[in-house]
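Section 5.1 Outputs to date
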Amino acid sequence: MTATIATDALEQLADRLAEAWMNHRTIDTVPPVLLTDRQDGYRVQDFMARRLGGTVAGWKAGATSDGMRRRDGHDGIVPGRVFADRLYLGAEHRLDAALFPGGHLEPEFAFRFLESPDLRTDWTPAALAPIVAPHIAVEIIGSRLDADLPATCRATAMTIADNGNGFALVIGPEISPDARYDPLDHAVDMRIDGGPPAPNVPPWIRAQPLAALADTVNLLAARGITLEAGQYVTTGSATDTLPVLGGSTVNADFGILGCMRLTFA
């Protein structure tokens, strides 16, 4: 055994998660190993990514503010990979709902890297601002582990292992440098088929996007992972989530920043 959990047990968990991803299903039984250490979670996520074999086009970051962490019970940022075949560019898409079993939608502020940041752990929001372009975005989140399983299956380390509960990322229009808005209280109207809007997340729970980006870049750098020019990072939801429903259309209206429209077949 290692100081935490043996490598073969971590690889077995990664195999189950990767299999569920590739077969578009969820796991309905408690895995044979439940993680409590985020370092083990990182290792499983790395193993899972190798099993999937896809090109990494960016990263999603969850639990990016103290308020989010208190609300969701996490002890720090929860990162996950965005794979190239699950990155969608543009304001309007038609997607297959079957790819996202149990999926939910989150409107977010994301960034595209204009150049690769140096591999260091002292990045600040001000230092990153000149080398990124902000975008509006919608993240599709969801766990490979069935929602009816015990809460221990959704602990921080398990969530990290499960690709940070990331499914896909839809990148919308770039935000104009002249746009005047406060991301902590900027209203976003997201709704399914014209139904009621998802409640906006209050300012004390939202993350300051550039601060969340810096924290994520530094976390990844501490693991020896750098971002590349053209990759994206998304930084936390502006509203409560809405479910992915086959046959529905979701509109996310960011006001002066633009709109996005996703139809699920």
